[in-house]
Amino acid sequence: MLGRAARLWETGLLCLAILFLPFPARAWLGEFTIRDELELARKFDLVIETRFPVVHDSVITGYVQSLVDRLVAVMPPQPFPIKVTVVRNGALNAFASAAGHVTIFTGLIANLDGEDELASVIAHELAHVSERHIARSIEKSQFIGAGSLLGILAGVLIGSQVSSESGDALAIGAVAGSQSLQLKYTRENEKDADQFGLEYLVKAGFSPAGTTRAFEKIRKLQWLGGGGSVPSYLTTHPGLDDRLGYMQERISRLSQGVHQQPTDNREFYKVRTLVHAWFSDANTANAVFSSSASTACLSKLGDAIALSRLHQVEEARARFHEALACNPGDPLWKREYGRFAFEYGELSTAVEALQEAVLKNPADLFALFFYARAVAEQGNFGASIAAMEKVAKSVPRDAEVQENLGRYHAAMGNQFDGHLHFARAFAYKRQFTKYTFHLQKAEALAVRTDQQAKLRALRDEIAEYREILGI
Ligand SMILES: [Zn+2]
Fold first, then answer.
1. How far is the CA of 112 from the centre of ligand 1 (A)?
2. CA 37/CA 240 separation, integer angstroms
């Protein structure tokens, strides 16, 4: 709990910091162009990626993206590629920011019970995107500088401070600190998003029943008093009852065939198990997964993960073996067992399990990350660099990934690449004295033109990062 409070507090600080960034005091006088929107989204992404607990587990993110892709396929053509980010946060929240970027909180996945429910919330957010509600709202709110706008968007992450009649976190513009700001969705926007969202949901083949169940869950959870995991904007939400009634009525008028659209929840349950096992309190997760009602193979995996987080090594190992026995072919099971074995020093077991996980699911970044670390421990730096480079391509600003790459290159005698990666790692840890130290070392070693080009790219990348974050 302390950790959670501390995180929220840090988020608050970040918001304030962003609001006072030295952005050019430019105002949009009524026109928020697509170019403006792309630029804003790029900066927003950088803030989110480097300052918030973004989930990099591609089993989770890949699943959410697959729901987005299904929905996008039936939407009108969009000027931007739709991008989804999952953030580790217990609040039931999802929001569209700018340029087709949608953020989903893990709390939403944790508290919903089926794929159609999650898809209905995403469809609603995508409808705000397709109707360009954000850009329209920005156009209406004249005289907003880019700095404060970025602050508002980052401010949506303070879910617990939101107080608004709108169901979307974007509406907390006022919370982000600017008194005269009216950046929020109107009731008409919400009605449109509900309506178009339902249309996309049904066209994409999801069951429409998920919509009302998701609404009802959000409404029910608000009566639990928040409890820290439900943002207050859901507790003061007069529009929700109206919207629920209206949507129930619309859904009842849909054809019988639509109502019978099947839901396959297997991937959803897998992803929700990962979210519970890794991101909720380990004792609670252990209690839930080990209860007599949860004898399914997935619960065994979840319990094994929870036990390993509690450092109950022998119990965890036994539970992993039970889980592997009931689902031996799934690369996720292998990955989690490999992570566990690596953490507790069983190197050859770890390499074997992780290698299988990587071969079966080459897109699994976590499997690759732990495989790279495990083979590095065995002294095979060539293989570890190859695997870690693949991870770095997807998450270039992850300090841990860069630091590991620096270490492997140094061990192989590639001093230039070693310092280059260490420099990037320290920059993203915001340790700029160390960043400069390694940058200078790399500069002294750069003899080839491609090395000089790499250095120039790094200097530009870090200069922009520092400018955007004001550090
Ligand atoms: Zn909305």
1. 17
2. 29
pLDDT tens figures, 403-439: 999 999 999 999 999 999 999 999 999 999 999 999 9
The tokens for 180 are 């005269």
DSSP string, 352-380: HHHHHHHHH-TT-HHHHHHHHHHHHHTT-
What are the backbone dihedrals phi and psi of residue 84, each rounded to the nearest 5 degrees, phi first? -120, 140
pLDDT tens for 434-448 read 999 999 999 999 999
**Residues 67, 119 contacting (CB under 8 angstroms):** yes
94 CA from centroid of ligand 1 (Å): 9
Q: Are strands 94-96 and 101-105 parallel, antiparallel or unpaired?
A: antiparallel
Question: Rounded to the nearest whole angstrom, what is the distance from the C-alpha of residue 443 to the centroid of ligand 1?
Answer: 50
396: Cβ contacts below 8 Å, ≥ 6 apart: none
Domain ranges of the chain: 2-259, 396-471
Reported in sequence order, the residue ranges of 319-425 that DSSP labels E, i.e. its strands, are none
User: How far away, in angstroms, is 171 Cα from ligand 1 center?
Assistant: 9
